[in-house]
């Protein structure tokens, strides 16, 4: 059974942290504290709930799509000694009306390793993007660069790939799966796969199919889970 006293103390401490954060965060940043033992009404405290349309008493299922808060319920089997908080940072979620959000989550476990609480941060930068677009329209038209945006992007993608493969600049013949997975991990960290065509380009360099690259990414994701 969870230690209720410890849990209640942690709730009070996290609530105090949230109160402090609410005084300095903008309205685009939602901060929410979940009780994972009561997913049907998990929201204990929330700041800027308009970001996801939730309030105190909302269920875990009402959160943004791909919310890592669900990990607390789906991944209960952990080593008994693994009771430290699990941190998931800067991942993509989807809010109301399909608005893209950037999110981070901290999972707190009891002495048995069971996730009992989560503190989640969801940032909606859509208004910032609108403002940036409006400002760009007010700026004078820039001369056409010698290198188009598309060509520049492809050049940057090549730079990322070259930075991830061996110093020789070429992938050695007979490279092992482990070596290829490590290369894909480095490419992912440098952002290659957030742009269209990144997976295909990596596949060509590694001599594998795009589906194999996706499989490597799945393996990497599993190793990053707590």
From TrEMBL:
Domain Transcriptional regulator DauR-like HTH residue range list: 176-218
The YheO-like domain, residue ranges: 12-132
Pfam families: HTH_22, PAS_6
Protein name: PAS domain-containing protein
Protein source organism: Enterobacter agglomerans (Erwinia herbicola)
């Amino acid at each position: 059974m969870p230690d209720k006293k410890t849990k209640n103390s942690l709730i009070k401490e996290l609530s105090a942290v949230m109160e402090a954060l609410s005084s300095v965060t903008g309205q685009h940043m939602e901060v929410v504290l979940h009780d994972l033992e009561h997913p049907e009404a998990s929201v204990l405290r929330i700041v800027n709930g308009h970001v996801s349309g939730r309030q105190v008493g909302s269920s875990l299922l009402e959160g943004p799509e791909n919310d890592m808060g669900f990990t607390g319920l789906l991944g209960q089997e952990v080593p008994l000694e693994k009771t430290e908080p699990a941190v998931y940072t800067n991942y993509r979620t989807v809010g109301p009306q399909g608005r893209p959000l950037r999110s981070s989550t901290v999972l707190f476990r009891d002495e048995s390793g069971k996730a009992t609480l989560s503190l989640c941060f969801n940032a909606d930068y859509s208004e910032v993007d609108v403002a940036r677009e409006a400002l760009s329209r007010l700026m004078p038209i820039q001369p056409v660069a010698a290198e188009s945006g598309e060509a520049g992007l492809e050049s940057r993608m090549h730079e990322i790939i070259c930075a991830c493969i061996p110093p020789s600049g070429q992938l050695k013949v007979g490279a092992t799966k482990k070596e290829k997975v490590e290369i894909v991990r480095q490419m992912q960290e440098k952002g290659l796969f957030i742009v269209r065509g990144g997976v295909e380009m990596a596949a060509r360099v590694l001599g594998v199919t795009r589906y194999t690259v996706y499989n490597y990414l799945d393996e990497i994701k599993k190793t990053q889970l707590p």
